[in-house]
Amino acid sequence: MRLFIGIALPPSLSQLLAQAAHTLIPTEGQQRPRITWTRPENMHITLSFLGQVDPARLDHIQRSLAAIHAPKLHLQLNGSGSFPKAGILHAQIKPSPSLLNLAEQVFQSMETCGFPRERRPYTPHITLARSKEPIRIPPHKADNPAFQQSFTAHELRLYESITRPEGAHYEVKAAFPLL
């Protein structure tokens, strides 16, 4: 099973971001890259990607995540951007101390389960689209008010990513309340 740990978005915010994402890519004057848009129900903030995991490890992962104690998070979107080389269009999340603290707790928890810590610094974001080609956002497109929203996260989730012909589907394996 392919697993990751993340924070779900309110459905209304996911819908708003899905609509706003389409305004970021030029529709004329340039060749538009071939893009796979993230479906609203799949939008989330990844805290840790575990990859392929033996199902026998699931119980240990869940116990480790259940031991995390963190408050509800008040999260603020902080514009849009891209990781051009990776071909990812995203909504930026302001890296608040509480979010970074939760991410650190998740990293430490997963290290105790035998998962190596990612080498890159943690960059909180919501993936809006992917492309096999670089994606760049024209500067005048990046200031859409949809990318300045805020919301409260009430739980941490363990997801399984299931590949289907119509695209990825994320199934919640377990949820852990933020107090």
From TrEMBL:
Active site: 44 (proton donor), 125 (proton acceptor)
Endpoints of the signal sequence: 1-20
HXTX 1 (motif): residue ranges: 44-47
Record carries keyword RNA-binding: no
Enzyme class: hydrolase
Reactions listed under catalytic activity: a 3'-end 2',3'-cyclophospho-ribonucleotide-RNA + H2O = a 3'-end 2'-phospho-ribonucleotide-RNA + H(+)
Keyword terms, alphabetized: Hydrolase, Ligase, Signal
Function: Hydrolyzes RNA 2',3'-cyclic phosphodiester to an RNA 2'-phosphomonoester.
Family: Belongs to the 2H phosphoesterase superfamily. ThpR family.
HAMAP family named among the record's database cross-references: RNA_CPDase
Protein's recorded name: RNA 2',3'-cyclic phosphodiesterase
High-level lineage: Bacteria, Pseudomonadati, Acidobacteriota, Terriglobia, Terriglobales
